[in-house]
Structure formats: structure tokens, C-alpha cells
Amino acid sequence: MIPPAVHVLGPGWRDDAWERLAGPWDVLVVGGGISGAGVARRAARAGLRVVLVEQRDLAWGTSSRSSKLVHGGLRYLREGQVGIVRDSVRERERLLQTAPGLVDELGFLMPTYRGTSPGRWTYTAGLEVYDALAGRRTHRRVRRTELELLAPRLRASGLTGGFRYADAQTDDARLTFRVAMDAVAAGAAVLTYAVAEDVLRDGAGRVIGARIRDALDAGRAVDVHATATVSATGAWADQLRGRLGADPRIRPLRGSHLVFPAWRFPVAQAVNVIHPADGRPVFAFPWEGVTLVGTTDVDHAGDLDVEPRISPAEAAYLVEAMAAAFPALDLHPEDAMASFAGVRPVIGTGRADPSKESRDHAAWDEHGLLTLTGGKLTTFDVLAREALRAIGPRFAGRTAVGAPEMDRPVDAVPAPRLVELGPGARDLPADDLRRLAGRYGRATSSLLDAAGEPGGREILERIPGTASTWAEVRWAARAEGVVHLEDLLLRRVRLGLTLPQGGAAVLDRVRAIAQPELGWSDARWDAEEAAYRALWASDYAPPAREDSPPAREDADDERPPAGVDIGSSTVRVR
Ligand SMILES: Cc1cc2nc3c(=O)[nH]c(=O)nc-3n(C[C@H](O)[C@H](O)[C@H](O)COP(=O)(O)OP(=O)(O)OC[C@H]3O[C@@H](n4cnc5c(N)ncnc54)[C@H](O)[C@@H]3O)c2cc1C
Question: What is the rounded average pLDDT of the residues 7-24?
């Protein structure tokens, strides 16, 4: 049994949400990425009646496709974006304190080479400022001999030593889910696979809500009225703005990553290398038992409603950087196990070099529609505070919105203490427990209880080759609003990124655990599994070998996509 204090998206939650959808609401949030979740959480905690709608799954957009770093972005200092770096490192410090097990420190190494730039003094100056902005000293110089121990396969010729400093990393989709569930706990309603297809306007032309269509049942649509409508639609922001006649302002920039098995590309902490071709920093870092390499920064010409994917040129670019830095590893694109790509919602200023565009966020009020876009995963709460300040006057005198206390940081729900977790917790290694408590917050004890049900003990074991436990599969299927199998495998438990072939070898076990929880027939499961495998092969597989044609032509090639069409319409209807 799930205690009433634990809020879940269990059986029937979508139908319940549809019944309540028409409102009226105080705040309608469109977009279930980290920005929308953050706004919903702040607004609900301020006592407002909030509903959040997402056209696909929570975090389906950019918020599951980032580099998963909670960081200031050292490189932005070089570009003079001091304000962004300051806000980011402060948010990083706050998240490290409030969400251990979900946001954790990660060491970064920056090797220096004789006669190359940036040189030692540039790094020293940058890191001094970086640490000063965070109010915590994390960096130190590392001698060559120590660096060779910390990153054994680094190119040795010309190596003079380097620097080590600390940033943090997370699971971006889980962070989004955690914040969204905090919003639910504070009273917000959440509805996924629900598209805001148009804005509603009053006689004076002011936005008073949006028309929401069910992505799973195209015949179902509702006019949702709200005092404030917030579009937290990231890279899609121009679509709703366009309904108001506003000119497009977003420059969609794609960033892609390769995922290597840790045995093929072992790194104990992040390594920041300078790309030999263009001087951009490229990272390799450990994450959830694999090694991620990223990222690129290229204009994305593809349809935003089609899953983005890495192009062969991007894969070659990333491998070129790593091959130069780690020649002994003899890396090739086909050594990767998986890939993923996301689209940055960058506010375009017309600069030729995408990497020179500012990563700052924007909040535009156009005819009463508040659009929030740009920014970073790390600074989601900065954006949320700004949103609440902007809409606050519409609720004058009613709530704490706009009052000074609304501007204070909101803690994530503190991780439960061991004694609160019941007997299921006692046998778990401390690291696993910390990880679960960070990711599941208040729901951790229910997750452990579920694992303790008949046949459950062994499901507290880790899924081989990953940092996740089988118990998380059961909990996600039971209580985390899974609508399609891809929601479970790509965003709740990230087997699609961390296991070969998207986790094909464990799908039978996943089915045994999840199918009864989801209540799917065999035919439904088979269809979901086929759709997931096709999606993975098309958009998450490692890049094709150069001698074989790609699974799907890259969107930028302006050739039509081929293969199984499971994501090319505005929404998928099954
Ligand atoms: C490659 C890459 C690496 C990055 N790395 C980092 C990093 O390491 N650290 C960091 O801090 N930041 C990073 N970022 C930036 C960060 O990921 C984004 O700033 C952040 O995820 C944006 O969140 P969002 O909620 O604004 O947008 P999204 O996560 O894209 O959410 C918008 C949501 O709105 C939904 N939506 C759109 N239109 C509608 C509609 N009409 N109706 C209903 N729903 C709709 C979409 O489906 C989507 O889910 C990275 C970005 C990229 C691309």
C-alpha cells in the first residue's frame, strides 16, 4: 500500500487529470521539462492552483538529453557571461546540499600541454574566479605524474600537468521528475501526452489559457482557462508565440553525445579536452556506469517534433577530440554503445558561431502569455523565481507570490533518514540507499516496500552493468506515470542509454516486473516493445559504420526520414 503522503501517478491518473482539466486554474504551465516542473513547483508551493501539461512524456524534450552536469560552465567565463556562471554555481551548491544522491559532486581534470592555449595562467585565473563565485575553493594544480595516475591513457607527449576542480552531475530526467513530483505533492496536477495546440484569448486579445488536445485520443480536447499561462516549452517556444503573431526568436542548436561502455573508455572523473580542430572544450565523463562524450553545438534544421539524433559528422567530431587526447585507446565511432541528441533553446542573436551564443534564459510577456526559454538545467529554479515574480501581480493579496519569501531557494524534499525507510533499507549498501533517497525522496520507503513484496527481495539488486536496481523498474511502472515503454526505459530508468542495444538483453526481465504493474495485455506489450526497439535503433543507436548506410538520414541532410515512423507526427496516437 502506498501511504497517502506519497504522491504517485498510478493507475487512472491520466483520466483523473482529464476530468479536472477544464479548470479554472490559477496557472497553466505548458511544457514538462525542468523549467515547467520548476515553475509548477514554485507556484503550487505559493498556494496557487496549478496544472502542467506536456505533449509527450515528462523530460521528453531537452531535459533528458543534456550533458547531465549541474555546473557553472567554466567556458562561459571566457565569453564574459559572468552573471550566468555566478547564478549557476550558486544553484549547484544549493542542489548539492539539498539533493544528495541525485546531484553529486564530480571531479574535472583539465590537462595542460606545452606550447598550447589556454595556458596555465589562463586556467588559474579562470578557476580562481569560478571558485570565488561559488564561495568554495575546489581547484588545485595537478602535477604531470599525478595526472598520469588519474587519467592513465591521456596523451603523454608535451603533457605539463593540469588542474582539477569540482562541479556536479545528475540524472537530468530524474531531476525533472523529482521536481515535478514535488509540484504534485504541493497540489499541482500533471498531465502528459497532452498538447497545447493553441492559446485562448479574451475580447481584448489577452491570453486566458490554452486548448489542450489528448495525444493518445485525438478526439479529446479541452479549453483550459487560467489566470496566468506560462509557456515553458524550451526549443518549441516559438510555436505558441507564433499563434500570437510574434516573430521567432529561438535558434535551435543541437548537442549530441556518444555513450561508451566504461571498459572501452574508462574514466574515473570528467576529463575536459580542447578539440584540436576548433578549440572547443569537449568532455568525457563517467555517468551511471558508462562514459559519456559530448558535446557538439550545431544548428538544428530538423523538425522539432521528430526525435533529434547524432549525425555521422558529429560522431566523428567527438571521436576526433577523444582520439587526440587518448590515442592509446584507439577509439572509433562504432565503439560507442549508444548516442543521444538534444536541442538547446538558445536565444538567437545572429552570431555565426553557435558556441558564441549566450546561454542566458529569457522571460517574455506577450499578450499575457509568459514564455520562459533558454538557460540551463542547473538554473531551473532561477527561472522559476523569475516566472513567479512576473505573474505575481496577477494574484496580488491572495498568496505569497511576489512576497520576499517566494524569492528564497526552495529545498528539494530532504532525503528520508534510514530509520524512516523500514526494514527493506537495512541490507542495502549505503551508496545505493543514498542514490534511491536522492532520486525518490518521500517515495523511497514505498519503493522499498514494493521491493519487499513476494518475489521482491532480489529486485533490490542492481541491474547488471548499471547503477539502477530492478526495484526502480517496478516502482516506475507502478507509480511514475509511464504511458509508453520508452518512458520507462529512456527516462525513468535509463537502461536505453546505459546498456548495449538499449537493454535488449534484459527486456524479458523488465517485462516480468513491469507488465503486471502497467496492466498491459501481451499484445500491448509486444507493440510497445517493437516501437521502443525501432525508436532506439533509429535515434539512440551508436552511429552506423561508415561502410553501411545510416538507419535514418540526418534531418540536416534535408532528405526525408526513412524507417519506422514512431515520432514524426506532432504527437503519436496509439
Ligand atoms: C546537448 C545539451 C547539453 C546540455 N547540457 C547541460 C548541462 O550539462 N547542464 C545544464 O545545466 N544544462 C545543460 N543543457 C541545457 C538544458 O538541458 C536545458 O536548458 C533545459 O533542459 C531546458 O529545459 P526546458 O524545460 O526549458 O526545455 P525542455 O526540457 O525541452 O522542455 C520543454 C517541453 O515542452 C514540451 N512542449 C513543447 N511544446 C508543447 C506544447 N505545445 N504542448 C505541450 N508541451 C509542449 C516539450 O515536449 C518539452 O518536453 C544542455 C542542453 C543540450 C541540448
Answer: 91
Q: What is the mean pLDDT of the chain?
A: 88
- With a pLDDT cut of 90, the percent of the chain lying above it is 72
The rounded Å distance from CA 339 to ligand 1 centre is 17
* Rounded distance from Cα 475 to ligand 1 centre (Å): 25
Q: Which residues line the pocket of ligand 1, CB cutoff 6 A? A: 30-36, 53-56, 60-63, 65-69, 71, 195-196, 232-236, 239-240, 255, 295, 342-345, 375-378
Yes or no: say if 432 and 101 are a contact pair by the CB < 8 Å rule: no
Pairwise CA distance, residues 300 & 298, whole Å = 6
Q: How far is the CA of 527 from the centre of ligand 1 (A)?
A: 28
**In 99-191, which residue ranges form alpha helices assigned H by DSSP?**
120-134, 144-150, 172-185
Q: Report the distance separating Cα 413 and Cα 235, nearest Å.
A: 29
Rounded Cα–Cα distance for residues 68 and 169 (Å): 6
Ligand 1 nearest-atom number relative to CA 60: 49
CB atoms within 10 A of CB 520: 18
Ligand 1 atom closest to Cα of residue 197 = 41
Closest by alpha carbon to 436, among 474, 400, 396? 474
* Ligand 1 center from residue 160 Cα (angstroms): 38
Altogether, the residues listed in the chain come to a count of 574
Span from the CA of 345 to the centroid of ligand 1 (angstroms): 7
Residue 453 has pLDDT above 90, yes or no: no
The Cα–Cα gap between 495 and 483 comes to 17
Sign of CA dihedral 542, 192, 434, 69: positive
Q: What is the CA radius of gyration of the chain?
A: 23
pTM above the 0.85 mark? yes
